[in-house]
Design a protein that fits this description.
The protein is mostly helical and 168 residues long. It contains 5 helices and no strands. α2 packs parallel to α5. The relative contact order is 0.13.
Length: 168
Amino acid sequence: MKSDDEQIEVSRDAAYEQLYHEMRRHRDYQIVVSGWYATLALGVVAGLVGISKMNIELPSSLAWVFAVLVTLAGFGVCYVVWYSHDRYEALRDFTDKNAEPEWKRQLPMPERRVKPHHVLIVINLMLTLAIVVVLVMVTQTMVWTFFVSVFLLLLGYFLGKRLRSWSR
């Protein structure tokens, strides 16, 4: 039986392969979560439009609860995309410094200000806003004044935070 102090040798190729698979998992996770949210968001919008076409009125308390849930889900998805991207970047940096072959480190990498996860976050935020707007149109309540202002404040906060990190 081996003790905890003994180290097991792992080949550089095996470590690189595992790091690569982990990075791929984080990238895929961003797309999968955004895809599921987009599917649910479109289903919700279709349901709300269907309710409005059948002339069914939603109580305003239900509209408030629904708007809160949609907003929380939208920001939750954006957080998951952001977190997954940060984990991917950390793994990418570690891999570049410790596991990449020397020749690959010398290849020039273009620096992009807007990256794919930024696009996913903006799309998810716009879907969230669209659902709240459709909800307002269907229920004709004043729910939108509160949620649109909260939405815009949070959007401004996230974009401001990200813009500050881009300028470094």
